[in-house]
Amino acid sequence: MPQLDPGPWFAIFLLSWIIYLTILMSKLNNFKYQNNPMLQDIKKENPQPWNWPWT
């Protein structure tokens, strides 16, 4: 049963995944974070009390 013999295709399979993981993933990671997130202001504004003119 030749389909159970991993010799001919297993080396090609491993080589293609090694190429995929090293070359393509490094190229794809360059596009992942183009805009760095900015820190938000930590200061909170104090709310002003409402002016109720009818009271």
From TrEMBL:
The chain crosses the membrane at residues 6-25. InterPro entries: ATP8_metazoa, ATPase_protein_8. GO terms for biological process: proton motive force-driven ATP synthesis. Its main location: mitochondrion. One of its GO terms (molecular function) is proton transmembrane transporter activity. Keywords: ATP synthesis, CF(0), Hydrogen ion transport, Ion transport, Membrane, Mitochondrion, Transmembrane, Transmembrane helix, Transport. One of its GO terms (cellular component) is mitochondrial membrane. It is found in: Mitochondrion membrane. It is a single-pass membrane protein. Belongs to the ATPase protein 8 family. This is ATP synthase complex subunit 8. The gene is ATP8.
